[in-house]
Amino acid sequence: MDAKEIRKKAQLQKAKQAQKIPPAYQKPVPRLLFEDETMRPQNIVPVKLNRWIAFGVFLVVLIVYMCTQARTMSFWDSGEYATCISILGVPHPPGNPFYILLGRAIVAIFGWAVPHGMIAAFISALFSALAVMFTYLITIQLTSMLKIKPWEAIFAGIIASFYTAFSFTFWMNAVEAEVYSGLVFFVNLIIWLTLIWVQKSRDFSHQNILLLIAYLFFLGFCVHQTALQIAPAMLFIVCYPLLRQGIKSGSFFPKLVVYSIFLLVGYFLFGVIGKQVQIDDLDKMGFALVAFIIIFIELRKVLDRRIWLLGIALVLVGLSSHIYLMVRAADRPFINEGNPSNWKMFQEYVLRKQYGNTSFVQRRGNFFKDQLNYHFLRYFGMQWLNEPFFTKPLGVTSALLKPIANIFIAFLGVAGAMLQFRKNKHSFWYFFSVILITTVVMVFVMNLSDAEVRDRDYFFVVAYNMWAIWMGIGALALVTLWKSKPVRVVLLIFMCLLPVSNLISQYRVHDRSQEFIALDYGLNFLNSVEENAIIFTNGDNDTFPLWYAQAVEDPYSKENIYHARDVYPTKESKEAIAKAMEYKNKCLKGIRKDVSVANLSLLNTSWYIRQLRDQEGILFNIPDDQLDELEPRRIEKPLVILGPPDNPSMGFTMDIPPTAEWRTNEPFYRVSDLAVMQIVKDNYGKRPIYFAVTCESYVNFNDYVRNEGMVGRIVSTPKEEQIDPERLLHNIDVVYNYRSIEDPRVYKDDNMRRLVMNYGSGFVRAANYYIDTGNYPKALEYINKAKKFVDDEIKLTEFYTNYYSKTGQWNKLDEFINRHLVTHPDGWKIYLRFIIMHLVDYYPDKIITYIKKGFLLFPEQEYFAQFAVSYAQEYKEYDVIHKLLEEVAPKLQYDISGYQSDLEMLSKQKISE
């Protein structure tokens, strides 16, 4: 055989061998990746046993969640999500499309038998229980690398999972319709799959798992966008062997510097371009693009080209549920926030442009003081101990117990980290990357402001879940620290009791099974108003419950409809209402579909104004092409509200300040203010128009609003604090539901207590009405009813001032002042606002006595001297106030000589006049 034939035979043999190797692995791959067993999780717990324990954890937690889950809607976003799941709506940006589609699919299957609100809450319970199960499995994977016994790994896993399950924020998200339960599920599933890949892979094999992870990342992104928060940590774990090789070879740190520069340049360069083309988030897109290029450069030799192509395809498939947003928005559902029906609006919707641009560089609060300490660490202290539950039995104060508990929780997590680092540094670095990304980096990226409207602990629920894993490992560290078996047994029992105590102490806090406060809140607003009414609402909690009550058939809902009075519909308004009712009757299954809810915040957007006009039957006589041009402006002339043609005398003219002075003298009126004025102008007299009592302002209509309980109706006669006593009393006594408010089983958080006080204001108005009519026993009866909703009697100061003064019980008024106002930090403000001003208006003979009393009770408050001088000037009481200032001067904690000089000067000016 000659040399030519030998070469040919060798080439044929080489070709055959190549055909036997899967194409994905034909490239030369480094062989020293995960061959070291210490770098990989091990199967130290028998597989079947591990599965049964994981399922047991899942089942126990799911049962607890089902026992405590809401039977209907809850406050904040859950009402909107439950409604969108029921009607396939489009919720607030960025839409959470997979969550809505999945929820709607489950409703389609079981909705005929189970209330939709309950199904929405159960989805959260299911996701959360699965997330807890994967918390157990992740802990098993991490501890299996520590060379410990199987029971020790199981112990750490169970403790970590139950610490997660019954932590404050995690449990809260599990019992109501929320997306954060789904977020944690996807994050935990991805972490577990990544560790499974590490366990199985030797030379970047099993790339199908990596493809699944890529898909799950972007499917989870469609539940909540922060699902991508752990992507850098997962990339670190996957590339860990390559990074170690780079450190050994000396190439890692030069690359780190160069790549960091590229990332920063990409971020700022694309940010500049984004400002030019008006795409706010282009800086983040540029950062992501540069990061992807770097990843491709580093991994192109270990991942086959087909893997990259399949990965991109799966990313697109994962994101594909966003298509539903455009399709459904074009169909204009009842809830269609942002109306992402075309590409421009879809882009603004997904990028959350409605909430403004957020930059990593421009901090919205001090990173350490506000973002890390006040938000993240304060929420951290809420997670694992409900200290009020223990203070009385232990005989200690909350101020003492809380820091001790926080130190112990921190210590337990640090002990877990130390054990992990000491036993297996690879396991430690894997998990440390996750901890770092979900805590400090997440705080930096979220960039919360120092003036958030509510607690945002749910943003960091993944971080607290991860810390619970370290706590589980820390519990194992404390148990195994002692060689004495009795001590170990005692510690083991103690560590098991900790999550149990958390379960017991927080059970009532999270038990929503008997809570109907949120549902009743929406029902009571709707049932307050007359047929075909328009009601302006302020925020989430006085809007979402109304939407839910209108859209979702709920067995706990009841309907009340008042016949409309003093309205004269025109042909145009009748046709608009009929068209709206035809639409609503097709898609809504709840109560009071005749009512049009107009949210003040959303009225700043043109898409929402169009929605109210086209689907709610609200007349809005501004041409369509001008809606997008509405912008904040001053108002230079009075607002003329014409009466209907059948009764023109109902009209009125209202003087309006040029600027929105009630909002700290803003130099302009917002688009929402202008929209409210236009809606009232076009619909007044044709439909009843109301403001919810929760509105921060009635947009200058204050004196034209007649209170009827939870709502105030716009009327043509101006008068301060006017009420419709007949309607008010019927609403608060007959129509309204107050379920759960007096039920001691139902925990009321700060938000509930604050909102429930609005019921109290209705009873206070009724009590004041009976004072004005001389029926004092009835007044006391209604003020006692008000106390069921008001958490502090000082908030009834106005009533007691009115009652005691009208009945001549000045000694009782003095007792009330001494008991409630003197020790209150804002007592002096309340004294001036409610007591002094009341006496100025109704009892001028008593005013000097109570101004003097104010000086003596609040000797440090200079405002009383300012008021005294102003009073003297207004009522020409110079001599009386001069003598009063001389009398109280020695007892005050400030110098009033300047006020005395002002008073003398004003007195001389009066004489010269």
TrEMBL record:
<feature type="transmembrane region" description="Helical">
    <location>
        <begin position="427"/>
        <end position="446"/>
    </location>
</feature>
<dbReference type="InterPro" id="IPR021280">
    <property type="entry name" value="TMEM260-like"/>
</dbReference>
<feature type="transmembrane region" description="Helical">
    <location>
        <begin position="256"/>
        <end position="273"/>
    </location>
</feature>
<dbReference type="InterPro" id="IPR011990">
    <property type="entry name" value="TPR-like_helical_dom_sf"/>
</dbReference>
<feature type="transmembrane region" description="Helical">
    <location>
        <begin position="487"/>
        <end position="504"/>
    </location>
</feature>
<feature type="transmembrane region" description="Helical">
    <location>
        <begin position="151"/>
        <end position="173"/>
    </location>
</feature>
<keyword id="KW-1133">Transmembrane helix</keyword>
<keyword id="KW-0472">Membrane</keyword>
<feature type="transmembrane region" description="Helical">
    <location>
        <begin position="49"/>
        <end position="68"/>
    </location>
</feature>
<feature type="transmembrane region" description="Helical">
    <location>
        <begin position="458"/>
        <end position="481"/>
    </location>
</feature>
<feature type="transmembrane region" description="Helical">
    <location>
        <begin position="210"/>
        <end position="236"/>
    </location>
</feature>
<keyword id="KW-0812">Transmembrane</keyword>
<dbReference type="InterPro" id="IPR052724">
    <property type="entry name" value="GT117_domain-containing"/>
</dbReference>
<feature type="transmembrane region" description="Helical">
    <location>
        <begin position="179"/>
        <end position="198"/>
    </location>
</feature>
<dbReference type="Pfam" id="PF11028">
    <property type="entry name" value="TMEM260-like"/>
</dbReference>
<protein>
    <recommendedName>
        <fullName>DUF2723 domain-containing protein</fullName>
    </recommendedName>
</protein>
<feature type="transmembrane region" description="Helical">
    <location>
        <begin position="119"/>
        <end position="139"/>
    </location>
</feature>
<feature type="transmembrane region" description="Helical">
    <location>
        <begin position="308"/>
        <end position="327"/>
    </location>
</feature>
<feature type="transmembrane region" description="Helical">
    <location>
        <begin position="399"/>
        <end position="421"/>
    </location>
</feature>
